[in-house]
Amino acid sequence: MSWESFVMMMPYITVVILMAIGLYTVLFKKNLIKIIMGIAIMQNGANLFLVSLAYRRGYIAPIFTSAESTDMVMPTPHALTLTSIVIGLATTALMLSLTMMIKKHYDSINTEDMRRCKE
Amino acid sequence: MTWDTLVTNSPTFILGIPLLFAFLTALSGRFSKKIGDTLFFIALIATAFFVSLMSYEVLTGESWFYVFGAEQPSPENIRSFFRITFAADGFAVLATITIMITAVAAGIYSYGFMKFETGLNKFYTLFLLTLAGVNGMVLTGDLFNLFVWFEVTSVASCALVAFKNYRGESVEAALKYMILSTVGGLVILFSIGLLYGQHGVLNYALLREGITGSFIDKLALGLVMVILAMKASSVPMHMWAPDAYGEAPGSVTPFIAITSLGSLFVLFRLLFSVFSLTVVSGSILIILGTLSMIIGVSMALVQSDLKRLIAYLSVSQVGYMMMAVGVGLATLNTGDYDSFGELAMQGGLFHMINDGVYKALLFLSAVAVVHVTDIRSLNDLGGLAHKMPYVTFFFLLGALSIAGIPPLSGFSSKLLIYKSVYLYSPILAIVALVVSIITLAIIGKAFFNAFLGPDQGLVKRRVSKTMLLGMGILTVALVLFTLFPNIVVTEVVTPAIDALTETFEGVIP
């Protein structure tokens, strides 16, 4: 693999690393805050994936007024990313506020103490 | 505005009205409780009106694709990518009808049930947001909208589960559901990225043309399928369902269950209209469905909590639909489809609309029992039929229907499933029959324990009239499905099957 193609691959490698870290945290950590941090890392991984899909070398931003070149990137992935960032904010906020309530009721944020639903 | 404009724009109204009224009810808390109640019911009735408008037009006229976005975006060749399409076809009609029946019944039931809670306007907001989210999921014609509505549904329904936040159990169930849904949503986003990177489009119809069955396609299909099956509470990923169904405020339990039926509708739409790998995905559906039936019913066997028992039974009912539609999918485009595949599809989809109704009826009557007695364990209940004749009747109807006892509607759809699945593989039909018999035993045990026997004086408060009205609406629907199963199958279910199996044309030229 040449240096050039390695550089081009870098975003995707980062995506894989971020997703793996996030998934590991969600699956194996017991602390709720850490789990939510893992989800946030996965969110960033997915967003980075979408943004790097949109990148084309030598293309310009898709702004029609006073454009010199007609080689524009498709704006769809950027729109997707913006939407998913906003959604990520909502989900993270909701999960954190639920965690606050869990702390109030259970006096713990360890998932091993969350066993009341079973019976 | 003419009548035709209303009809053509009905998909927007189905989503727009709940969204608008969600914010209005949130604001109304500053003024008075009455305004919130009124706005909520106006929104429910208006949404139901537009759903029936759309259904009438699709079922008697023809289906159409509703398009958001400018007619003429500048570069001529890529305009269809920018436009958002909503599919108002037979399948969307079947799904929205199923959702609306439960939503109206649960909404009316909530009025009596939630009377003693505070902050009801926020409850209405969450309810309407969930309604908009589920309807959006089944109506949309492109993948990214699917993700957005999926997340709207997740956030709103999780918050709805945690509405009684003074109970630790509710918050715990909501957090578990939320973590699963959020990770699921991210995985869906990731596979949307994969498909977009491969094909450069998000529209279902354009995507279908591009999909060839390469490794990336299969990976994306697998990821999307796992997540939607998880949301539909199919077996290996069903753990959240009993917690969420059991701990949600009673009146919205069937509504949370409907969000998972909505995910199942979306899964079927994607498998038929986007991914053309029919045999593989059909077989996976059959395996997941059979597992759901067996494991769901055997978990229900050991439950003593009434709501959790029904939750596990609903997991096993999801198995029936997945198995039947899986048989239809696996035989699609072969000679077997005409001999029994279509019959299996009819059974599966008819079972979905049936299941939406009788499951809601069971949940609501079980919740009425818990509401009246404050007891959830079947071991401590007994003799309720003396004081609660109506609820007993409703529960019995739902129980007989879920067990598939003739002549109730659950029997009609299950008979279609047995007949067709037997021709595909006799073992599957035998499993379905045995699961049905065990279901009868379980729900019969629950009925005897809770309602029959000498009066033990457990009744502490009355069941309010609106709660009875909510259950009555479901009963009317159940009786109609029981009396006219042939009309439902030919008029509602068959157009849905046609919409699924014919090529999805959601591109505006």
The largest interface is: A-B, 35 and 41 residues
Principal-axes geometry of chain A comes out as elongated
Order of helices and strands of chain B: HHHEHEHHHHHHHHHHHHHHHH
Biggest sheet: strand arrangement of chain B: 1-2
Going by helix content, strand content and strand pairing, the class of chain B is: mainly alpha
The DSSP helix count of chain A reads 3
* Unreliable residue stretches of chain B: 73-80
Q: What CATH first level of chain A would be assigned?
A: Mainly Alpha
- Any idea how many domains of chain A? 1
Q: How much of the residues of chain B is beta strand, in percent?
A: under 5%
- Main sheet characteristics of chain B: 2 strands, antiparallel
Helix content of chain A: 55-70%
CATH A-level architecture of chain A: Orthogonal Bundle
Short account of what is shown:
The complex is a heterodimer of chains A (119) and B (509). Helix content of chain A is 67%, strand content 0%. Chain A has three helices and no strands.
Structural notes for this entry:
The complex is a heterodimer of chains A (119) and B (509). With 119 residues, chain A is mainly α. Chain A has a single domain (3-118), classed as Helix Hairpins, CATH 1.10.287. Helix content of chain A is 67%, strand content 0%. Chain A contains 3 helices and no strands. In chain A, helix 1 (3-28) runs antiparallel to helix 2 (32-54) and helix 2 runs antiparallel to helix 3. The model of chain A has no long low-confidence stretch (mean pLDDT 87). Chain B has 509 residues and is mainly α. Chain B has one domain. Chain B contains 20 helices and 2 strands. In chain B, strands 1-2 form a two-stranded antiparallel ribbon. Chain B is globular and about 65 Å long. In chain B, 60% of the residues are buried. The chains are: A mainly alpha (119), B mainly alpha (509). Chains A and B meet through helix 2 and helix 3 of A and helix 7, helix 8 and helix 11 of B.
